[in-house]
Design goal:
It contains four helices and ten strands. The termini are far apart. The strands form two sheets. It has a six-stranded mixed β-sheet with strand order 1-4-3-2-10-5. A four-stranded mixed β-sheet has the order 6-7-8-9. It is of the alpha+beta class.
């Protein structure tokens, strides 16, 4: 009798423990998780980038984040990643320079910004939301993305993404063009970045389309 009684009590305790665990699980499932338990926006952008097809992009900027906006373009991936500080805020497919006109690898700063520009090197081709990286024909701008390197050296990006990027960047902003595959782009290491002095940025601003029409011997192409 005693053994049977303890067996019944043990079964009841086990059933209660199971019921409590189920209720606790359901409660946790419907309660909002704390912010630190949610997937960071940068990881969501990284995850979206994995499945991108030509022309796809993802933008998740948070202007409250500290740090300047910078860009990393991976030529072998045909992708660009945008950071605010060390956090990934955007990713997009790109089209860089085709063979014979390859986009040069290196560290650049944004020299000029024009919401609309036409090339005087290549048949007056439109270059919406142009952000100049060199004075001899390399820039970020909206354009066709066929899924492979096809430009004359510029970095083409989707129009909607180009517009958002144009609004987020500043003259003197860092742009790195790399020949590497970026395996984990969500968090950018704090690399040394080229810096322009206040006077240099002011000089660039004086050449910007918002201030001048950019004519003369040194006019951009």
């Amino acid at each position: 009798m005693v053994t049977a009684k303890f067996a019944i009590l043990a079964a009841l305790r086990n059933n209660w423990a199971m019921t409590f665990a189920l209720r606790l699980g359901l409660l946790l499932a419907i309660l909002p998780l704390p912010a630190m338990g949610q997937e960071p926006a940068s990881l969501a952008v990284e995850r979206a980038a994995v499945a991108m097809q030509p022309g796809d992009h993802r933008w998740a900027d948070d202007p409250s984040l500290p740090g300047p906006v910078s860009i990393v373009v991976s030529v072998p991936m045909q992708m660009a990643f945008v950071y605010r500080g060390d956090r990934l805020i955007g990713a997009t497919t790109v089209s860089t320079g085709k063979p014979g006109k390859m986009t040069p690898i290196g560290e650049y700063t944004i020299l000029q910004k024009r919401p609309f520009h036409r090339s005087n090197l290549y048949n007056n081709a439109p270059m919406p939301f142009m952000q100049r990286l060199t004075w001899d024909g390399v820039a970020l701008h909206a354009g066709n993305l066929p899924g492979f390197p096809a430009s004359h050296g510029c970095i083409r990006i989707p129009t909607a993404f180009a517009r958002k990027l144009f609004e987020a960047t500043q003259l003197g902003g860092q742009v790195a063009v790399v020949n590497d595959v970026i395996a984990f782009p969500a968090y950018r290491p704090a690399d040394a970045a080229p810096q322009l002095s206040v006077n240099a940025v002011a000089a660039l601003a004086s050449r910007d389309d918002r201030v001048s029409i950019g004519t003369g011997h040194d006019a951009p192409h």
